[in-house]
Batch of 2 targets.
Target 1
Amino acid sequence: MLIRQIIVTLVIALGVLCDTADNKIEECILPEDLVNEIASYAPTVQKIINTSINGSFKGITYNELAYFVDKFGNRISGSQNLEDAIDFMIKKSSASGLDNVHGEEVKVPHWIRGSESATMIEPRTKSLTLLGLGNSVGTPPEGILAEVLVVKSFDELNAKAGQAKGKIVVYNQDYISYGQSVAYRGQGATAAAKVGGVASLIRSITPFSLNTPHTGMQSYKDNVTKIPTACITVEDAHLLQRLQDEGYTIKILLKMEAQTLPDVTSRNVVAEIEGSKQPEKVVIVSGHIDSWDVGDGAMDDGGGVFISWGALALLKNLNLKPKRTIRSVFWTAEEFGYVGAFGYAQQHQNETDNFVFLMESDIGTFNPVGLEYAGGATGYCIVQEIAKLLAPINATKTRQSPSVGSDIEIWTGNGIPGASLDTENDKYFWYHHTPADTLDAEDSVSLDKNTALWASVAYVIADLSIDFPRDSLKTKH
Amino acid sequence: MLIRQIIVTLVIALGVLCDTADNKIEECILPEDLVNEIASYAPTVQKIINTSINGSFKGITYNELAYFVDKFGNRISGSQNLEDAIDFMIKKSSASGLDNVHGEEVKVPHWIRGSESATMIEPRTKSLTLLGLGNSVGTPPEGILAEVLVVKSFDELNAKAGQAKGKIVVYNQDYISYGQSVAYRGQGATAAAKVGGVASLIRSITPFSLNTPHTGMQSYKDNVTKIPTACITVEDAHLLQRLQDEGYTIKILLKMEAQTLPDVTSRNVVAEIEGSKQPEKVVIVSGHIDSWDVGDGAMDDGGGVFISWGALALLKNLNLKPKRTIRSVFWTAEEFGYVGAFGYAQQHQNETDNFVFLMESDIGTFNPVGLEYAGGATGYCIVQEIAKLLAPINATKTRQSPSVGSDIEIWTGNGIPGASLDTENDKYFWYHHTPADTLDAEDSVSLDKNTALWASVAYVIADLSIDFPRDSLKTKH
């Protein structure tokens, strides 16, 4: 214990030297012993990879994911589908021989969509493809029939605030990136209500569309009227913009039955491979088990759940028991704002010091390229060494972010190191939160590689002679 | 007249020499005078291109197409929308100063979709995205609730004929190419009815899907029960296949209000630039003005109509009057089997000898690469020389097919030479017959280039000293 602490301190001290002013690592100076120790896992990692890619686990992640999404379909927070899927994953994890399998209760939102439609009435009749946004209120049963004001930005809305009263505000914001454009989904209704809008529609947040609607969360601000809000397709947003620019008066009849019912009890699913030496120290691998209520939630985040389940099942199958515990968590109600993860953080706050490293896959399980890392400079040096072990699947790339993951951001955004799966996910936002989030977005070979990567990284970090260092980037700037 | 005939004969004789056994042209031996004559059009073509790409016509094709699709939306055969759009194009062609603008009446089908839905009832409830196929009958008002039989091919259906009785047959055929896979759309219902199926669903004919349904024509065979038929998405066809393979019993409730009303009168729209020397000889440029009843028909075939209108309007604007007549035709009811074109062929059968060359754009107006040609070997040599003039827009490629076009195949499939617009259309079938066929599939710069290409090729062929030769490939094999 003492020797390990000394090594850790030394490692951290050396690690600081590696961190340049602009936060780019130019050189890693890790103790040679540690580098050699990490390299010594190569045969084990090769065995994990072989088993997943060409051995007894080949195709299992995809096939199990397929069986799961075919059986349950989508799994929105509050739904019986989600709870059935949670029961299934608890049984499946037990059947895979994992340790301490159980659900941990947490209250989650219960928003239901109901039927919904948007029909352009003027200047001509056209049925618009739409999806209500999460948490939206509904319209009166007869709907809301109103003139439309199309704006490209919040700035334009504010400049035209005088024209918005009584109108349906349509945001035709450009797609810059998901992170930048999603503000229109999250806050569009509130901004429209503030200037007197009676409903708001956003252009779906995506770089590519085949008339594809993309739902997602939105939040009302306190003390602002809650108005119904939905997404329309990129194509229809463009159409409405052009019609407005051509001088037409546009009217839309919006009908939404959406409503929020009382919270219900859901569960985060937990399963472990208990550590042989320090079982109280935990490496977490995770994905979220809930999805939106469209498509089948195969990509978001069935893939993340099944490579996390697959990683533990594979290690168990190979009888690889690391020094520390590897815990898989399938978070519930991620889509409504990390609800399951926040509950977990609260319930496990006394355990936080033992969270050695957190991993989440929630940005696609396409062909892997490596890891996106959040944490300190020395840790990054270690991650780079571990990534070298992934050369057999050509997934050795690493990059850094201030925080990673969705659910695990609660921890990685607060100085606890972790990593996201990094894949060739340039089409992720084509499918995200749409009816096209089905098994067709997934690929068996990629899933095998991701399961291998997930198992390898978790195993090495859980088994190292030292705790993964917590020298936070945040403390150095 | 006589001198021209001699030249034509000579050209044809020389052309034959160019045609090798495997139908590939190795060398073109055209009279030097003719080659020089074609090359002499370079300044004129450059002027057409400059005007369309950077001059007074820049952006006009796109803007006019946008105005058109925004105003009318989709335009299915039999609809008032289509007739309003036809009226509009007649007025627009007149306003552009074109000659002999008029509509020519033809009887067209009047099929209407009505509301429609397909809900998987077992093994779990899922609403399937579908679009009824053209000419389909409807279901009884209460729908058809039946077990499903999924097959990958007609062969598999026949092998399992004993299991099909009373079932909804789902075709999960692979996408090989549009031409090869479309047989399942065209004949799937009849094949299913023959073995006792009560309805049929096909996997949409596309190489890529975001849960995108692709409608289209289908035909019932005489003396076979007409059963309701629709397309579902690639994703849902895959789902049904997997569920069947996993051993589930699948039941679907199909409701379709589709019905065929009596034929109505529509019109092919005709406009000309009358030839200065031989006005009776005609070069046709064309696209079809009808569309399916989903999306806005911007790509299929608004683009084809508007580059054909644009080509004539541009030539008129430049005061370029060729020796022969250039005629634009906007065919009606193409989607129901070239109905407008067949009517036109019958009404103009006495004029066929004067059809010098026919052009149609109905496979997308993406960035142009050149021309796809049907006709004789000498003609191909001439087309290759003309294509060289298109170097300023990098659209000099040519290739041959036994017939080209959709509507004009009536003629090009029967020895009358013609060409299709050839573009970078690898995504054409992503949008084809879907709600995503909107203006977003079109691009202003590409449309400018296509208008220039269309105008240039039509003008040169209409103005050459010789009639375009009719040495048909068909007569040589």
Note: Residues 298-317 of chain B form the longest helix (20 residues).
Target 2
Amino acid sequence: MKITLIGVGLIGGSMALKLKAKGFASYIYGVDQNLKHLEEAKELGIIDEIATLEVAVSNSDLIIIAIPVDATRKMISKVLDLAEPGKTFMDVGSTKEGIVTIIDNHPNRSRFVAFHPMWGTENSGPESATGESFAGKAGVICDRENSADDALKMVEMVAENLEMHLIYMKAADHDIHTAYISHISHITSYALANTVLEKEREEDTIFQLASSGFSSTVRLAKSHPEMWVPIFKQNKENVLDVLNEHISQLRKFKSALEKDNDELLEELIRNANKIRGILR
Amino acid sequence: MKITLIGVGLIGGSMALKLKAKGFASYIYGVDQNLKHLEEAKELGIIDEIATLEVAVSNSDLIIIAIPVDATRKMISKVLDLAEPGKTFMDVGSTKEGIVTIIDNHPNRSRFVAFHPMWGTENSGPESATGESFAGKAGVICDRENSADDALKMVEMVAENLEMHLIYMKAADHDIHTAYISHISHITSYALANTVLEKEREEDTIFQLASSGFSSTVRLAKSHPEMWVPIFKQNKENVLDVLNEHISQLRKFKSALEKDNDELLEELIRNANKIRGILR
């Protein structure tokens, strides 16, 4: 199967490597604004050919849009204009409402499937891509009823080849759940990094003392703004809602500490420990 | 060398396994309030013999106190009363001021070395212990000038056998730095777990959607209150100081989002990204 990969970074590149290894992709056209990334992707075997959008799409059965969510919003209508019968279009963005709304009345809407693989790292660019990233993780398909059956089947096959398990949701529900489970983690981690950078002026001490616990909590703070500013903006209301709750949860810790309320402190921690039963 | 291990949990147990594997410990006496843990530790080869405090200490060259910091505070004077010439006592607690202050005027103060290995996990109990935990991590020795030279040398040998690199600090400075680098990470992680548990009532969805990013940020929230309530209390002023800064950093994200201030949002993220240059 011939595939167009729009965006040859971490997510797109990792998908390409896996789909090739599985024999699902026979030939991959790479489209990207960043020529250096395209050349790297070709060298790394992620893509076979650098192409323009039009040439790539006209030669492909499947078109994967793997660029930041603001860029997806900007170009998706134009990309869908190129949908001839039999072609399937999918994205991999971390927000969904903003994307599906914009193509709601597009004549080729049914050729598009809104997809979100629940995997990522703090790294970016083709050199971070790895074929073994998605196995065992969740893939979310949103608003399946708005996609043609054959397009849906195609994306389900993609997920199967990535060895992901599928979950189906409304785009609006997806954005609420990801605000809880993914987006707030990033804000927390950024804010934690900024706290430490603000308070701990001795960088050398941070490096020397940093425990595995700190490294793990602050890992996501290495993630780039090019990807995350658009996500926070597109999911603004949900993210603000969760962020307010998070600040209020931190205030409970503050109050328990200030008032030497050991029972409350212990209760807050015991409640948090429940996550142990949910995340193995 | 014969060693007494007071507290046969994650940290003490892991130290014992490594010190045995290295041939540094020839025989280990286990002392613990929890008889089940003592029996498990014996079965796992962490200790060789279950003993009373008095018998264990009288037969040992080195006494390692590896219990929660509130329990250490309560028993440390009594333990130091047993210090005969040539015996070395050390703790492994995550706070230091509260512990060294209490023995400041103890006649055997110089037999004690305040030590903190910068390693831990969200798990506890002897069955979580592993011999390969400390290698490459930092070990902090506090207020070295208050320990006898031979006692200091003994703890330096322990650190060497654990394959840790040593850092020397004042106890007060240690407590400031660990508030930044370890304690606040735990509060953040607890608060994040509570946020998600509060907002996301569908536990099944958390489990299904949880990405590696979320799991990593929330991992520390599995840590037990028995260990962490005493740490937060003993380091109350420093922890509150960092917690206030953290809440104010989160408020900046909130404000940037509410006001659609993209430049501020990007600046906050770019600043957080600096952690990449500090933590490899």
Note: The mean pLDDT of chain B is 94.
